[in-house]
Amino acid sequence: MIRNIFFTLVFFAGVFVSFAQQPEPISRITREFRDYNYYLTQTNLWKKVTATTPRDENAWLNYYEANRAAGIVNEGKRPENTDNLLAEMKKHLPESAVWNYLMYRNGGNDLSLFPYLEKAYRLRPDMPQILEEMVTYYEFSNKPEKRKEFNRKWFETGAMPEELLAFNHNVLVSLEPNALIFTNGDNDTYPAWMLQDVMNVRPDVIVLNRSLALSKPYISGLFLRHKIADFTFTPTSDGYAAYQDKLVAHILANAQRPLHFALTVAPESIKNHKENLYVVGLASKYSNKRFDNLAVLAKNVEEQFLLDHLNINFSYVSPYSSITPMRSTYLTPLLMLHQYYTDKKQTPKAAELKKLIQKIAVQTQREEEVKKILGE
Questions:
Q1: How many Cβ atoms from other residues are within 10 Å of residue 36's Cβ?
Q2: Which one, out of 78, 144, 291, 304, has a CA that is 20 to 30 A from the CA of 280?
Q3: DSSP string of 175-220?
Q4: What b/e readout covers 48-68, taking b as 16+ CB neighbours within 10 angstroms?
């Protein structure tokens, strides 16, 4: 019986060519992913809008976001110099919420720039992007009560997609009590924190974002708060992989907590641990000893998971949304569970689960791969 497999999923957005010649609202690239030509076009269009209506905060925000996204897609080469963009904005809107927000955001978690974010919040206390940065700031500063306060305010705006909350609910309920889980990015971290802070879903779990884990002050503060010995190793020329391996070893030796990795963490980044990782839901558990992870997986999916959003979606999802590729993550545990039901001769359960697997495969354009795994 297969107990430790990974269905390799590429978190893709596809290459989409856009011919739109109208400025469009720009979502953060973590929520919606387009190609470089789209972002370049939108950067130029929003730049023209700011030239004709220089006191339009929304135009400047979209100009910044399009330019930033173009740089991410194009290996850091942005169409416009960000400092110049913000300097030009300052001429027209130096006291605005958006300018202050962007001055903070552009600093890359430089906590000394927090006065800009504070001012932005005073001016626009219900702006979701500002509230998200407040959550980040207080998590980075190891102030859990303040993080909770701003997560509640952010939740009340309704800006967090319900499917991301459902997905992260299923991640959290996959875990053992008092677990520590490594997460990969925005969409498997912020919703998890929000669930913990607002809905009291698995507040016993430490959600450790892999990017934040690179910060020594953050790790030291987080470990101190949870009574884990300080971690002294620093990144070297070997890069993040060596650092993460050392951090994992430290957690296993000192944390006295079950260790998990979200399935959204790319397999190649944890390849040194794959022999000790067992899928138990939307997360894999680290274990030096074999155990019946498929029975745990079945229990979690049957008794804990929220799956209605995969069968019926009542809200519009953009074809460029990051939500769609995240659904691919379900294929790993569900395919394993289908095999488990088949081996156990639980034919009705296997047949019903197969329908859901096929639906997700169609939604995420993984039909051919899934057919091969199912032997079709």
A1: 17
A2: 144
A3: SPTT-EEEE-SGGGTHHHHHHHHHS-SSTTSEEEETTGGG-HHHHH
A4: ebbeeeeebbebbbbbbbbbb
Distances from the Cα of 46 to the Cαs of 51, 52, 267, 314, in angstroms? 9, 10, 38, 32
With a cut of 80, say whether residue 9 has pLDDT above it.
no
What is the rounded distance in angstroms from the CA atom of residue 339 to the CA atom of residue 330? Answer: 14
- What string of DSSP letters covers 213-242? GG-HHHHHHHHHHTT---------TT-HHH
Q: What is the pTM of this model?
A: 0.91
Q: Please provide the distance, in angstroms rounded to a whole number, between the alpha carbons at the two ends of the chain.
A: 20
Q: In sequence order, what are the residues at sequence separation of 6 or more whose Cβ sits closer than 8 angstroms to the Cβ of residue 231?
A: 219, 220, 223, 246, 247, 250
What is the token pair recorded at 292? Answer: 């019946």
The answer to whether 168 and 192 are in contact (CB under 8 A) is yes
Give all strands of the β-sheet with 277-279 in edge-to-edge order.
206-209, 180-183, 259-262, 283-286, 277-279
Residue 178, token pair as written in the block: 């008092």
Distance CA 314, CA 43 (A): 32
pLDDT per position as a tens digit, 178-213: 999 999 999 999 999 999 999 999 999 999 999 999
Hey, what are 87's tokens?
A: 């300097």
- Own/partner long-range contacts of 75-83 (Cβ < 8 Å, ≥24 apart): 79/40, 79/43, 79/44, 80/43, 80/47, 82/106
Between strands 259-262 and 283-286, the pairing is antiparallel
3-state secondary structure of 84: helix
Q: What is the DSSP string of 286-324?
A: E-SS---HHHHHHHHHHHT---HHHH---S---TTBTHH
Residue tagged 């910044």 (tokens): 64
> How many CA atoms within 13 Å lie on the side-chain side of 75?
0
The band of 325, judged by pLDDT with boundaries at 50, 70 and 90, is confident
Cβ proximity of 248 and 273 under 8 Å: yes
